[in-house]
Amino acid sequence: MKEELDERERMGRLRRLSTAVWLNDGWIERDGKRLLNLASNHYLGLSPWVSGKEWEALRRETEAMGEPGVRIGAGASRLIGGHDPHHQALEREMAEFKQREACLVFTSGYMANAGVIAALVGRHDAVFSDRLNHASIVDGIVLSRAHHVRHPHRDLNRLEAQLKKWSAGATGEAGRVPRKLIVTDSVFSMDGTEAPLADLVTLKERYGAMLMVDEAHSGGVYGPEGRGMCHELGLHERVDVIMGTYGKAFGAVGAYIAADGIVIRYLVNRARTFIYNTGLPPFMAALIRARLREVRAADEARSELMRKAALFRARLRAGGLDTGEGASHIVPVMLGTDERAVAVSAALAEAGIAGVAIRPPTVPEGAARIRFAPTPQHRDEDLLRVADTVARLAQYI
Ligand SMILES: Cc1ncc(COP(=O)(O)O)c(C=O)c1O
């Protein structure tokens, strides 16, 4: 282990934890230093703290449900007596929000992706996955033991060729027609690019595949009331499985799957990360319900976020930097080598800016970068200053 860690250190790939204390208005304190926090997924800038008033409302609401207090732990898997009235209410409210028949809450996005993909497909099936899909999707595919058919980022021609080939050669070894699942991030987490969702829906319908869309980075940010990218494009009824997390724009933790009732009933019976995992803490389910109301009302924050991200990206580009092909609220600055990304990140910290170096294997070899995520709280002048600082640093590092 030591040799491996030393090797990682030598390659500039060692990961380390550092404690960050969240301050007001998009700032953090790390190692005693105040930093403008452009390294979070707290996209709407909702208050990261629970207020006394919020707790009080939560306590009263819980008592009205017939419970003596707000429960901390679910106490068991939700199937074994851990299903709280707040879980039930959250799933009902989420199904209404996502305008789908039913919804199922998981303890994290990682758990949702790992469990759902492994439940939907098995050894005789195939998953068609964009090369830049999140690690939790990749792990779900590995866990499923299905054929892992990857295509270059957003390459629809390659995907169609693969779907065609698989459909022609498919056998009935599974004792049923082999399943095909297309799975994609909606907004790609490290590139800020958007998935070609309309085309994916066309392909999935043409080749009789299922489509699962991970809205981790678009939930709360895209679409009316933050319902997500599938809604923004009017595709929410044509996507088989919509997944999203509460750890990003919602500022909480946990995840949901929205789908037809039969899919949700199937997952309750088949998704091992739901069946064999202690349920989401009931107090968190209750706080997410409050968060859902805030997210729905956050239209102003959503448009400010997009305006600020566009302003920031334009300034970076004007400074000669490569911000990739995306146009979303996630803004990467491509730096190439690991060493360069690490050195720029360290120099940014010196300048009072938190911007994290993202290196392989999170991104492809030679594509190290700093990933910036502005929030509506960041002032325009601060973002412009950060862009100018990055441009200056990139000239000599
Ligand atoms: C696209 C995507 N899906 C899933 C996850 C996992 O979600 P969670 O952090 O809730 O486990 C993340 C990030 O964490 C992500 O970026």
TrEMBL record:
Q: Which residues form the Aminotransferase class I/classII large domain?
A: 35-388
Matching entries from InterPro entries are given as: Aminotrans_II_pyridoxalP_BS, Aminotransferase_I/II_large, AON_synthase_class-II, PyrdxlP-dep_Trfase, PyrdxlP-dep_Trfase_major, PyrdxlP-dep_Trfase_small
Q: Which UniProt keywords apply?
A: Biotin biosynthesis, Pyridoxal phosphate, Transferase
Q: Name one Pfam family in it.
A: Aminotran_1_2
Leader peptide range in chain numbering: none
Q: Which reaction does it catalyse?
A: 6-carboxyhexanoyl-[ACP] + L-alanine + H(+) = (8S)-8-amino-7-oxononanoate + holo-[ACP] + CO2
| Cofactor(s) it depends on | pyridoxal 5'-phosphate
List all membrane-crossing ranges.
Answer: none
This protein is called what? 8-amino-7-oxononanoate synthase
Task: List the lineage, top down.
Answer: Bacteria, Bacillati, Bacillota, Bacilli, Bacillales
